[in-house]
Amino acid sequence: MLHRLILLPLLALSALGVSACDAVNSASDTLGKAEVCTKAFQAAGFTPDLSNPEQTVKDAQQHAQELRDLSNKTTDAEVKRQLDAMANQLGQLGPEDLNPSGVTAWAQQKLNTYNQLQAACTSTG
Asked: Domain span at residue 6?
């Protein structure tokens, strides 16, 4: 009987500890808007290198993945939407775009998407 009286509170505390750890782990996976946006602007600042198309496409894909990862770490719906849009924009860059006219069109679209991301990051609502 004494074992039951000791065991039940220990089990309850153990369950609470696991729940608290899950909550802390979940919270640590979420970043604040300012931190997400700062990291997003770094990744979105990617500039194509026309002299090395193969590496440029790989770099664009890497930056797109960074933005997708950040998108998964924000709770702000508009920032998430704009991070996904920017990731898609960077991810669209292909070898066929790495010529003067192609990269100019791509860069203009990227700038428009970047401006939308910036607006989402600076909004207070």
From this structure: 1-30
pLDDT of residue 26: 41
Query: What pLDDT band is residue 3 in, cutting at 50, 70 and 90?
Result: very low
48/107 same-domain check: yes
77-91 vs 53-71: helix axis angle to the nearest 10? 170
Q: What is the pTM of this model?
A: 0.74
Return the number of other C-beta atoms located less than 10 Å from residue 85's C-beta.
18
> Within its chain, how far is the Cα of 106 from the centroid?
21
Q: How confident is the model at residue 125 (pLDDT cuts 50, 70, 90)?
A: low
Domain count along the chain: 2
